[in-house]
Amino acid sequence: MNVLDFQTRKRDRDKISMVTCYDFWSAQILARTDIDCLLVGDSLAMVMHGHESTVFADVDLMALHIKAVARGAPGKFIVGDMPFLAARKGLEIAMNAVQALMQAGANAVKIEGEAGQKELMAHIVESGVPLMGHLGLTPQSVHGFGGHKVQGRSDRAAEQLLQSAQAVAEAGCFALVLECVPAQLAARVSRSIDIPTIGIGAGPETDGQVLVLHDMLGMNPDFKPKFLRHYANGFDVVSQAVNRFHEETRHGCFPAKSESYA
Ligand code: KIV
């Protein structure tokens, strides 16, 4: 997968799969799967570091995780998230952030939102950096949205989203994440632009799907928003294995002779 393949996949109606990846060991596993693309999302602030929202990620943290993922999955197409406000403090700071993420090993960067940053987006693309857009429920704006709410429900909001999607495509982005928008609107957006849309909570008619790896693996059984499908029961797998090790250690049946040095 390289940046040109995204266009081909849309043209051929061949859906794109993406999952988040934040560290070396899961990157090594994902490197041996069929997944098309890895996203070092700023959701790592929540999933890996226990923060309440993604606003706590910064450029250094993103670069640290991108480096680990790039070491674990050097053959995969890796997208790194521009963290909170990194694109909003002027051109130089934004471009320094882009440089840090790309030099950490990303193949592309992703920016949330469109309003007020179309020129910056075009500049990033003109600088030779593949750029992915992100519209709908953009989690860095969670405080402005008053919570994690589905976006684009009113006619006005839907129209605004369609216009922003058009602007993202015109700025030269190679793909667009649509998060938590009504399925019909996501389908309209996907038909109206010529770059692929990758949905999360955006219904089945986007050109691809993305999920947070830990969520799809069922690592937190209490987190089950409507759009999420659990592909494994990771919480039970891990806790049962650890409890078995604990019991076998206590009863002296681990390690066995065959697991010990002579
Ligand atoms: O940070 C992230 O994980 C994301 C996905 C939810 C698209 O941006």
General description of the model:
The protein has 262 residues and is an alpha/beta fold. It is 42% helix and 15% strand. The protein is built from eleven helices and eight strands. The chain has helices at 3-11, 24-31, 44-47, 59-72, 91-104, 118-126, 142-145, 155-170, 183-192, 213-216, 234-250, and strands at 16-20, 37-40, 77-81, 108-112, 131-136, 175-179, 197-200, 208-211. It has an eight-stranded parallel barrel, surrounded by six helices. β1, α2 and β2 (37-40) form a beta-alpha-beta unit. The mean pLDDT is 97. The site of 3-methyl-2-oxobutanoic acid (KIV) has 11 residues, from β6.
Number of DSSP E strands: 8
- For the residues shown, what is the average pLDDT? 97
Determine the oligomeric state from the structure.
Answer: single chain
Shape: globular
Low-confidence stretches: none
| Physical arrangement of strands within the biggest beta sheet | 1-2-3-4-5-6-7-8
Strand content: 5-15%
Major sheet details? 8 strands, parallel, barrel
* H/E element order: HEHEHHEHEHEHHEHEEHH
Q: Helix tally?
A: 11
Which structural category fits the helices and strands?
alpha/beta
| Cα gyration radius (Å) | 20 Å
Query: N-to-C terminal Cα separation, in Å?
Result: 48 Å
| Residues in helix, % | 40-55%
Bound molecules: 3-methyl-2-oxobutanoic acid
What order do the helices and strands come in, and which of them pair?
Layout: H1 3-11, E1 16-20, H2 24-31, E2 37-40, H3 44-47, H4 59-72, E3 77-81, H5 91-104, E4 108-112, H6 118-126, E5 131-136, H7 142-145, H8 155-170, E6 175-179, H9 183-192, E7 197-200, E8 208-211, H10 213-216, H11 234-250
Parallel strand pairs: 1-2, 1-8, 2-3, 3-4, 4-5, 5-6, 6-7, 7-8
Bound molecules: 3-methyl-2-oxobutanoic acid.
